Amino acid sequence: MSAARVRRDGDVLKIDGRLDRAAVAASWRALQPLRAGATSVDLAGVEAVDSAGLALLAELAANGLRIDGEPAGLAELRAAYRLDGSLGFGA
Q1: 86 falls within a domain
Q2: Which part of the chain is the STAS domain (predicted)?
């Protein structure tokens, strides 16, 4: 799977595929009508994240959504940008 796919399951937003520069704009648009009432984002189906994907996830987290999952690249990007586990700026 390459391009990201976004769907909703109850109060969980699920993202599958690659969350990278090529997928972020379409993923952001797809997420907007699904966000109301959502509590978390499930990344179990995400193959990899780049800095554009991290920015999307950080925005979702800043708006109160819990980010669940650790796709390839996320830990390294969090460390590089000094973000904590909830994608906020660490101390």
Answers
A1: no
A2: 12-60
Q: What angle do CA 21, 48, 58 make, to 5 degrees?
A: 65
The token pair that represents 19 in the structure block = 């969350």
Domain span holding position 59: 5-80
Q: What is the pTM of this model?
A: 0.92
User: Among 74, 68, 64, 58, which residue's Cα sits nearest to residue 35?
Assistant: 64
Give yes or no for residue 18 having a pLDDT over 50.
Answer: yes
pLDDT at 90: 66
pLDDT band, very low/low/confident/very high, at 1 (cuts 50, 70, 90): very low
12-19, strands of its sheet edge to edge: 5-9, 12-19, 40-49, 66-68
Q: Residue 5 pairs with which residues in a beta bridge?
A: 16
